[in-house]
Write a structure and sequence with these properties.
Blueprint: H1 3-16, H2 22-29, H3 33-45, H4 67-79, H5 86-97, H6 103-112, E1 140-147, E2 157-164, E3 170-176, H7 181-194, E4 200-203, H8 218-222, H9 231-238, E5 242-245, H10 253-272, H11 278-296, H12 316-319, E6 322-327, E7 333-336, E8 339-343, E9 356-361, E10 367-371, E11 374-381, H13 421-441
Parallel strand pairs: 1-4, 4-5
Antiparallel strand pairs: 1-2, 2-3, 6-9, 7-8, 8-11, 9-10, 10-11
């Protein structure tokens, strides 16, 4: 019997023995007098304290799960769905196995077998929450994260993604080997083609998003000096998207929390689909994004969308490019990466020699000459080979020998005497030094 049941027995026996009234017994147990009278009748009718014990004691509940089902759930987790959290595992059981269980039931079954959640949640620091934007398309958050998305089946690679702040819809995502400008550009192109042009973009301060020279003093900012932009920043300026660069990861918390969700769920989904490479993962990614958006997307507080419809005349491949300036040479040629290029088609505009033009390189490696808002394709041309000039070998001159009456070979003076042995050796040494100096000068 439990402690509460033992207390009931003691009180009922005191009431039956005349030591307490029904009112006093009911007050002691927190019951009404009517309930106290019922307890007395049960005690008398069933022969003592056994009548106050709960009738389901020792019985299996009607809604209890079958042991075979518990065993099946445990084996499936260990062999097929390992690593998934309780909520995701309950969804996978219903989707793939036809087993409907609540996350709490799944948790109890696994804990009974000593299986804890793969990733223990750590208490995060408290940060003041920021309200979602009111309309879809007012702000996108963009980021990338490297992770072992295919576990040990392939090397780790980076997932680039963008999420709408108001609805939580992942507007675009792509896998690349590393975090790169191409990955962010592809994500933006996906989002713009599927939803439209957003009004703002929130990113970190990676050099992909900002130029390393983007440092201005307060005086320069007040004077309205324009900042140098990166290639990605120039694309945002062309599309009239306000680009905000966060100082801390918590400022763009929605995309940071998305990585936790993807690292929990996307890894399991890719494993179940049998994906073995990054290219296969990219082909399956749109299907997984649709599933994620149906599960986690919310409605915005204001129904009108803030997206600007994309202009059909604007080619996004010509926007998300590498941009450099070159000087035109004679014959409509220019130099780029050590190679000579010329116009692939006749130019509709006049291009003067030594005029400064902009060269754009697309994600596919196509080179374009951007001149007066027009894209002119370029083609590589061969460099003219110059005939090497013949070099004349320098003739070696014979060392000049001094004459016999040269001052180095003779002594002179007012009182000329016969050279002594010491003087003769000194003069011979000076002569040889002079001769070597003459040869070196020649």
């Amino acid at each position: 019997m439990t402690r509460a049941e033992l207390k009931k027995v003691v009180v009922v026996e005191k009431v039956l023995g005349g030591h307490m009234t029904n009112k006093e017994g009911a007050t002691a147990l927190g019951l009404t007098e009517r309930q106290m009278i019922r307890l007395k009748k049960k005690y008398i009718a069933e022969g003592g304290a056994q009548g106050l014990v709960h009738k389901n004691r020792g019985r299996k509940p009607i809604h209890a799960l079958d042991n075979e089902l518990k065993k099946q759930v445990t084996e499936l987790y260990q062999k097929k769905y390992y690593g998934s959290n309780n909520c995701h595992y309950a969804e996978l059981l219903e989707e793939h196995e036809g087993i409907q269980l609540s996350p709490s039931s799944v948790r109890r079954i696994l804990l009974d077998q000593g299986i804890k959640q793969a990733k223990q949640r750590r208490r995060n620091k408290a940060h003041q929450p920021r309200q979602r934007r009111s309309q879809a398309g007012l702000l996108w958050q963009i980021d990338a994260t490297p992770y072992a998305w295919l576990e040990d089946r392939a090397p780790a690679f980076a997932l680039h993604a963008a999420i709408d702040d108001a609805t939580g819809i992942v507007v675009g995502a792509v896998f690349r080997k590393n975090e790169c400008r191409e990955g962010y550009s592809l994500v933006m192109q996906q989002g713009i083609q599927n939803y439209g042009v957003p009004l703002g973009l929130y990113s970190d301060r990676h050099t992909i998003f900002r130029s390393p020279n983007e440092k201005l003093t307060v005086e320069q900012e007040l004077a309205g000096v324009s900042r140098p932009l990166s290639n990605f920043g120039k694309a945002m300026a062309d599309l009239h998207i306000e680009h905000i660069k966060a100082v801390t990861p918590q400022a763009k918390g929605r995309i940071e929390r998305l990585w936790k969700t993807f690292q929990d769920r996307l890894v399991i989904e890719l494993r179940l689909l049998g994906v073995m490479s990054m290219d296969e993962a990219n082909s399956k990614l749109p299907l997984l994004l649709d599933k994620h958006n149906r599960k986690f997307a919310v409605l915005p507080t204001e129904t009108p969308s803030a997206y600007i419809p994309s202009d059909s005349s604007v080619n996004l491949e010509h926007i998300f490019t590498i941009r450099e300036y070159r000087q035109m040479g004679t014959g409509n040629t220019l130099s780029y990466n050590g190679k000579i290029y010329t116009l692939a088609t006749p130019a509709p505009l006049r291009l003067d020699a030594k005029s400064t033009v902009e060269v754009r390189e697309t994600l596919n490696g196509e080179l374009l000459l951007w001149y007066q808002e027009q894209a002119l394709p370029l083609k590589m041309t061969e460099k003219p080979e110059r005939k090497a000039e013949e070099t004349k070998e320098a003739s070696s001159a014979q060392p000049r020998k001094p004459a016999q009456n040269h001052p180095w070979k003779s002594t002179y003076g007012r009182n000329q005497t016969k050279r002594t042995t010491k003087q003769s050796s000194f003069q011979d040494a000076m002569y040889s030094q002079h001769n070597s100096y003459s040869e070196a000068s020649w």
